[in-house]
Design goal:
The complex is a heterodimer of chains A (about 325) and B (about 280). A two-stranded antiparallel ribbon of chain A has the order 1-2. Chain A has about 325 residues and is an all-alpha fold. In chain A, about 70% of the residues lie in helices and about 0% in strands. Chain A is flat. The N terminus of chain A is likely disordered. Chain B has a domain of about 180 residues: MetI-like (MetI-like fold, Orthogonal Bundle), CATH 1.10.3720. Chain B is mostly helical. Classes of the chains: A mainly alpha (about 325), B mainly alpha (about 280).
Chain lengths: ~325, ~280
Amino acid sequence: MTAVDSVAAPQPKVGVRPRAASRRERWVRRLPLLPALIYTVVVTQIPFVVTLWYSFQNYFWDQPGGAHFTGLSNYRTVFTNASFRGSLVRSVVMTASAVIVAMLLGVAFAILLDRKFFGRGVVRTLIITPFLVMPAAAALVWAVPMLDPNFGLLNYLLAPFGVHHVAWLSVHALGSVIVVMIWQWTPFMTLIVLAGLQSQPPDTLEAAKVDGAGALATFRELTLPHLRPYIELGILLGSIYLVNTFDAVRLMTNGGPGTATTNLPFFLYQEVNNAFDVGGAAAAGVVTVFLTIIVATFALRMFARVFQFEEASG
Amino acid sequence: MTAITVRRGPRRLRELPGKIGWAVLAWAVAIAFFIPVLWMVITAFKPESAAETWPPKFVFTPTLAEFRLAVTGMGPFLLHSVLATVGSTILVLLLGVPAAYALSVHPVGRWRDGLFFFISTKMLPIVAAIGPLYVIALHTHLLDSIWLLVILYTAMNLPLAVWMIRSFMLEVPKELLEAARLDGAGRLREIGGVILPIISPGLVSTALICVIFAWNELFLAINLTVTNAATLPMFLISSVPQEGLFIAHLCAAATIASVPVIIVGWIAQRSLVRGLSMGAIK
């Protein structure tokens, strides 16, 4: 059964198969689900319906007269708007590079943590901590105490390597923001990959060792294929969260210098808060949602596959 | 790598240098990774004059002055954060437990569609609807109120909680449920008497995950609240003045704001993976 089928045509899992359910029984089953379902539909879907409506309206906060219909003009503006396209591209670049590097580091850290050594628990705790730091706090602590050109710790630590008072947030703004994203999300990847490593049956590895397989060959031939669903899950979930990155952009660079770090969330934030353009922001939002749905369709298929894998093995 | 097996000699002794090397490497990586957090906490104990120096000072007389300063004025923000976090987490559990039950123990017909509907809402970028959300909040008189944050944080965490609680419910032994049914227990007694006691550690870790995300949220708070419901992340922003020295002050405020969730996360680290993978990984 392919992942697509499993989403489109759900089949009850063996063991929890509902018995031939009467009409009443069906409602008794449905009842506990309804509050959460209705709540989620109302709170998460209505704003998007309203967004769709506003995307066809001319509406600025700061102008009297309220909203009026303008047809597709907001969409024309969005598609001809270079800063929207720019922020879209930067969102993709930031999310992809942060997720990939965080995953590579996560795999490395997980391999380190998969062995027994002195103080492993403490090391694990230290490594997960960046994920727990409030993102706003992390952004501000990186922006000033760490990266300040005059007092920042990073310049001090890099001084022996010939780095002198670099103004990171002006010269390497995009890179700096991505570094903070990586720093906060590597622990997440580490934990997921580590769970994968620890779920590996030890006798398989032992057998490979007895057969004289080298560590590298064992990793490539056995461990990596086993880790694949975990890596996919980490990339998928990491992307879902990281594509919405706002705190680091707002608090480290405010989207700048110029628009060097303006990603989609920050662009939309500016449209509403500085340009007061509800209609324009709504049209940009609708385009964003459409693009997200395309990506999410693939993501959901992937999730269904991983999910099935876990249900089957767990 | 260290997997080269040496046949002769006591194996433990042979592997010792490799083991030490491994530990040293792991510790070095962890400490390097932890430096920004450590630096935040160290700087928070500095007097302001010792925070803005070149080279950075590592030896200084620690002071609580900046903590004291940061705490004054933090009160309302702290209160709003606690109310929004606790309120939304309770609501998430009230809605999530029955929903997870209906998707696992006695599943509804299209339970898989239900599950994937919840997760698909996590993929919709809330940023896309921020303007209209503001307008809706304005018209419903919820703008700048704690209730608005409670409502939105609940929607934000509910999918995660449903997936997670469901994964715990699936682990309740079928025999126990069967036994309760033979005793004539109805659905409510089945939930209250059998399932909830067994999954209560799972509920605690679900709640902790929800607390982490709600406590740290900034985007919705900054767009939809001003003073009556402004939360701790917004307090942090306000602790950066337009001019003057502020590094130690900022670090003190950042430390106070971050510590509760760091501790919660440390306590919950065993179940962190499960929560973050929405129950997919045990």
